[in-house]
Structures are given as C-alpha cells and as structure tokens.
Amino acid sequence: MKTSFIEDVKAKLKEKGYKLTTQRRVIIDVILENQGNHLSPEEIYSKVKDKYPEIGLATVYRTLQLLEELNVIYKLNFNDGCNRYEINSGNDYHHHHHLICLNCGKVIEVKLDLLEDLEEKIEKEGDFKIVDHNVKFFGYCNECKK
Amino acid sequence: MKTSFIEDVKAKLKEKGYKLTTQRRVIIDVILENQGNHLSPEEIYSKVKDKYPEIGLATVYRTLQLLEELNVIYKLNFNDGCNRYEINSGNDYHHHHHLICLNCGKVIEVKLDLLEDLEEKIEKEGDFKIVDHNVKFFGYCNECKK
DNA sequence: TAGTAAATTGATATTCATTCCATTTTTATC
DNA sequence: GATAAAAATGGAATGAATATCAATTTACTA
C-alpha cells in the first residue's frame, strides 16, 4: 500500500461514480492538514475559505457526508453542540479512542486497543456482528486533576 | 440501601438546594416507567404532557440537565439527531454498554465490564484520571445480519 | 468539436434541537 | 397571610444541519 491518501480517496470516489472536484480536494487538504484537531464543519468551512473563498457552506456539509459514507473520515461527538470529524487513517476499523477532560474539554487520543476480547465475548453471547466500536473515557487531564 | 429511587433523587436534590417539584416528579416518573427505552427530550415531553399538560418543553430540558448533573440519569448519543437519556441505576459509574445495529437502529444493552484493565493502563501511561467511560459497538443484530 | 445528460455547486430557505428571556407561579419563611 | 426567593412558563432566539433550486461544470457521445 504505497498510494497516497488523496489517490486513495480519488479511487473510492470513482468507484461510486463521484468526482474529485477542486472544492472536494481543498476540503480534504484542510482535513489532512489538521489531523488530530477534530474539526467541526464550521471550522473546516472557515479554513477552506482561505484557500477557496467562493466555496459555500453547503458544499462543506455535503462533502463531509460523502467522505463519511466512503469511510474516509468519521464523525465524533464530544457533546459540544456540533459534529466533529477525524480521518480514518487505518484501512480498517480499529482506530484509536479519546480521553475527554471534564474540566477543560481537551481531547486526548489513546492508541491502545484491548477491545478484541470484549468484542469476541459479545459476538458469542449476544448474537450480534460487531463492525466498529467507539470508546470514550471521561475524567481529568494532568493539568486539571490537581 | 433500601431507599426507593424517588427518595434517593429527592435527597440528592435537597443536598444541592433543589426542590422536588410536581413537574420534576412527573418527569422522573416517566423516565422510570420507560427504563431501557432511551427516551429523547421530545419523547419525554410528549409522555409527560399526558400526565401534566401544562408543562413546557423548556422545563423538560432543564430537568434533564439537572438530573444529569446529579448523576441520576446520563446522556446517550446514538447519532440519530438527538440526545437520549437513561437511568443511572448502579450507584457508581460502571454502567452497561450498547450495541447499535447499523441497519435497523435497534439498541441492545450489554452488561459486560472488562474495561478496568484498559482504564488502569491508560491512567498509568496517560497521566489522566478516568472517572467514567462510554462504549458503543456498531454492527448488525441477529435479524439484520443475515 | 458541439450538444446533451448527469453531477456539482452556492445561495437561500427551512427544519429541528436547544437555550434565552421576561413574566408568572410556586414554595418556604416569618 | 404577607413577602421574598426560587422555579416554571411560553414564546422567541439561536445555531447546527439539511433541503431546495437555479445555475454552472463535467463527462460522454455523436
């Protein structure tokens, strides 16, 4: 797998009959340049406007939906009133998890992945085919826990 | 611990200087009568109106916030456009998790709790004091996976 | 290369959950 | 029962997200 991220997205778009337009390209660039920042649609819109001022907000929303559909990004929810997005960097579903500070709202990423056992157990017992999971831990970061 | 749920809530309210008003009481009743249903504010509002037609939607929102603050209920998010609430039945934070069917949207509860190891590891490595967690598994229920 | 159908875009209108605000009602206290 | 404080109210405001629609762009075909 030596294909670049953009090439990969382009292929996925083509596969479903979509095109990689300039607008979509700029949106993807912004997301790429802000990995780990969990941007909201509005934030993406504002950054995209710097590079492509004619773009409309609707296009940003549409493109985010499209990219989510293609599993290029996925939606996060930190209960702050808007959706946030993150690149789905791995080519399967085992992404990282989030620590959310209850005091300052900071979001820290964790790369541990000890959930296989749990998934296996649930699949056996529960008669449920697991495809993805989403784990959030709430607590206090090292600055706020004092 | 032989106190009833309502008594417990009443005590918690009093502790923080809040009162158990009729409206709050009715809202709590509705939540109690719908355990396991993950009601949204609108759904709660509609059911509460049957018992107490004069109540306003804002009151429902306010009460839900209040009850969440007191750890009597907690907020869930199933990406269906609204928040949903669930009773916090255990007296500490180790509640159950949810299986969400990607096809029919059904939500199934799981009681497993194998996350202690993971939390311990994160606390050691990450310099983060964990207070709560939230785990969702996405996949297909036994009816939809065929 | 011209012409046509399909996809995409951007501005605007709309929807819907949630919050805000001024007013009214309820509760507790003396 | 009078009074002050707290809580609840409806309606309006807000703000994120979606839908609408005419205009533009793109891909394809003759």
From TrEMBL, chains A, B:
Keywords: DNA-binding, Iron, Metal-binding, Repressor, Transcription, Transcription regulation, Zinc. Pfam families: FUR. GO terms for biological process: negative regulation of DNA-templated transcription; regulation of secondary metabolite biosynthetic process. The keyword Zinc applies. GO terms for molecular function: DNA-binding transcription factor activity; transcription cis-regulatory region binding; zinc ion binding. Its cofactor is Zn(2+); Mn(2+); Fe(2+). Fe cation binds at H95, E116, H133. Zn(2+) binds at C101, C104, C141, C144. Binds 1 zinc ion per subunit. InterPro entries: FUR, Fur_C, WH-like_DNA-bd_sf, WH_DNA-bd_sf. Belongs to the Fur family. PANTHER family: FERRIC UPTAKE REGULATION PROTEIN (PTHR33202:SF7), ZINC UPTAKE REGULATION PROTEIN (PTHR33202). This is Transcriptional repressor.
